[in-house]
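Marked as duplicate of an earlier ticket. Keeping the data here for the record.
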Amino acid sequence: MGPLVARAWRRGGAAAAAAAASFPRRALSGAARSTLDVAVIGGGIVGLASARELILRHPSLVFGVLEKEEELACHQSGHNSGVIHSGIYYTPGSLKAKLCVEGAALCYKYCDEKGIPYKQCGKLIVAAEHEEIPRLKALYERGLQNKVRGLKLITGKEIQAKEPYCRGLMALDSPYTGIVNYRQVALSYAEDFQAAGGTVLTDFEVEDMKMTKGSPAGSKEGMKYPVVVRSSKGEEIHCRHIVSCAGLYSDRLSQISGCSPEPRIVPFRGDYLVLKPEKSYLVRGNIYPVPDPRFPFLGIHFTPRMDGSVWLGPNAVLAFKREGYRFYDFSLRDFVDAAAYSGLWKLVCRNLSYGMGEMYRACFLNAQVKQLQKFIPEVTIDDVLRGPSGVRAQALDSSGNLIDDFVFDGGTGDIGGRILHVRNAPSPAATSSLAIANMIADEVERRFEL
């Protein structure tokens, strides 16, 4: 095997790393560098948290993270709202509910230990109309079942005491909801992983996985590393086991490994507006609408950011590219994959009016501002600017059902039995990352007998 060119990330302070994420190039060569006990595919927050947890549990083993981009955490992990969720919305007993509540506590603890700044600014879920009040009360009961800390229902006057410019009839107050820069958190996980001896290979886009027919060149370990992972540039890593945390490409990585193609990933883009800086005083904490159970997304909301800005949104529209953050981004392969999938058309037919409304609001700012004015009437179209976008990896089954919980699976046969796929890690995956990592590490130990 020829030398692998990697980008090795060195500690330079979490804040500086979050801003620059510089990876000076160095060459890695030889069998010692090309063999791993466990390869973690995906340098997002879930992959990095999982790699960190595994190496801390098994310091004598050799772990590596394989990331297709030149930097870490630059897709879903770096394009999200930054909210530390408390676990209100999720079905009691689901992994989402369990991992979110655990993960939020672990996230706050980790940030305290590492000196990563965050703000526990709270969240109000506001009922602006009378018919929303029963749904709000049901959310309150759900949050209590999920053991969310500090929840209480508050009146319209109490809403204004917390958010002076917000109007509502009743709200669910979640004081332990917070905000953080999740890319900074993810890069700190990478620091921990490398400090423990782990290797990060960026610019390594996995193109193929297969069982080797012979020993790796120069290796005296025989068939100890039977799985070959090949990059799009022809570089190879030999390993014993694989953990795939591929986010928007989790279904394709599963197919490459010979595992099930279901559930499929359909990308949805969320576009944010941003309050002009001189209007940021209008919002103190997170302000959310009461979600409508007929539709799959939460609706647009007000989200303060660590840099002092305030994001408004997002909407939810089908993206024509899996990592397409701009309105005109297009990938023929991604578009054909989505358009040819029967599950997507079933979803569209069931939510046609909602989808058309989202497309309309994506094109016309007035329509989005009108929704925002339900909660803060003072916001006008002159107060907002178009802001950033993110793309959500939405898992979908062939019946058109959104997969709402975490999905972990492997395959059969020689290579399938050596892989654990994280098939679906939906929001609140960033909040839950350390709790997810604990569960993944437990599953890896069980399946692979580390």
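See parent ticket for discussion. The longest strand covers residues 384-396.
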